[in-house]
Design a protein that fits this description.
Elements: E1 28-30, E2 33-35, H1 47-51, E3 54-56, E4 59-64, E5 67-71, H2 73-87, H3 96-110, E6 115-124, E7 136-144, H4 154-157, E8 159-167, H5 185-196, E9 201-205, E10 211-214, E11 218-223, E12 226-229, E13 236-237, H6 242-246, E14 250-255, E15 259-266, E16 269-270, H7 278-291, H8 298-301, E17 302-304
Parallel strand pairs: 8-9, 8-15, 12-13
Antiparallel strand pairs: 1-2, 1-7, 3-6, 4-5, 4-6, 5-17, 6-7, 9-10, 11-12, 11-14, 14-15, 15-16
Length: 306
């Protein structure tokens, strides 16, 4: 059984709750309560730990002139719930409103102005028969201060990547459109291989040999003024072959952790003419304006914590 320790004074977080503002160490949200990290303990025999039966999200909170603000919080939590349902849960213990309130409560209690937010729904209390129906869904939220995912110089200089020897999951093998924990050893294998070879990131091909994505980011190609990405969206979506990466004017990746980062080299081949990356730069500037509360869309995409 799962052993979850909480205190009597810290009540369940609901939509509109303000959480704790007392000074102290960062807090975590575990099954509806704010707890100290030392109290957020899991049993070794938690089935999610053994089988990867969990769904998660990555969400960012940024410093703005009005204080900390979470970028597209509701959309991220909605995707978390969708991932959990794709994994097979028919009922979840917390609603979208409770989970979004939990995220703001944890950020507020942490005292961080900028941080990464990690909500997780996992299989607990049974489930050894390899079915989510044999256990219970638990939920938790943690935050930590965040540094540049691909390095401090990546924003200006771009990073080096290679095409991985590992193939991206086939959508009929794993549920690839859901953020399921058990999907990610595929990314770990590819990223570890690339780092050991001296690169910063891995580009993964699909089962048909076409470009899929990177280990934790989507990938985009700029060629003769057109922006192209592998299917599926609102720009030109079409299959991208490996050789198209090499002759692109620009290649960049996007993700919650990485934000918008250019790839300056792929498989030892420099990308573009070396005269700059105007599309990548423009998107970087637009993204940073949005998350800092300096863009017309900021009002609808930011959730202010205080």
């Amino acid at each position: 059984m799962e052993r979850v320790q909480t205190t009597e004074l810290e009540g369940r977080s609901t939509a509109g709750s303000r959480g704790t503002t007392a000074a102290g160490p960062p807090r975590m949200w575990l099954n509806g309560k704010l707890v100290a990290p030392s109290e957020a303990r899991l049993d070794f025999l938690t089935p999610a730990l053994h089988y990867g039966v969990a769904a998660f999200e990555g969400i960012r909170c940024y410093r703005t002139a009005r204080g900390p603000a979470i970028f597209r919080l509701e959309e991220h939590v909605e995707r978390l719930i969708h991932s959990a349902r794709v994994l097979g849960w028919r009922e979840l213990p917390f609603s979208l409103e409770e989970l979004t309130a939990g995220c703001t409560d944890v950020v507020r209690a942490s005292g961080f102005e900028e941080c990464y937010i990690r909500p997780l729904i996992w299989l607990a209390e049974g489930g050894w028969n390899l079915t989510v129906d044999g256990g219970k869904a638990y939920a938790g939220i943690a935050v930590w201060e965040w540094k540049a995912y691909l390095g401090a110089e990546a924003l200006e200089q771009g990073v080096r990547a290679n095409v991985s020897t590992f193939t991206r999951h086939h959508p009929n093998v794993m549920m690839t459109k859901a953020k399921i924990s058990g999907n990610y050893p595929n990314s770990v294998l590819a990223k570890t291989e690339s780092l050991r070879l001296g690169f910063d990131e891995a580009i993964m091909l699909d089962a048909q040999g076409m470009v899929a994505e990177c280990t934790g980011e989507n990938i985009f190609v700029v060629r003769r003024g057109r922006l192209v990405t592998p299917p599926p969206g609102a720009i030109l979506e079409q299959p991208v072959s490996r050789d198209q990466l090499y002759i692109a004017d620009e290649v960049f990746v996007t993700g919650t952790a990485a934000e918008v980062i250019g790839l300056r080299e792929i498989d030892f081949r420099p990308i573009g003419s070396g005269r700059g990356t105007p599309v990548t730069r423009a998107l970087q500037q637009a993204y940073h304006a949005v998350v800092r509360g300096e863009h017309p869309r900021s009002a609808s995409w930011l959730t202010f914590v205080s």
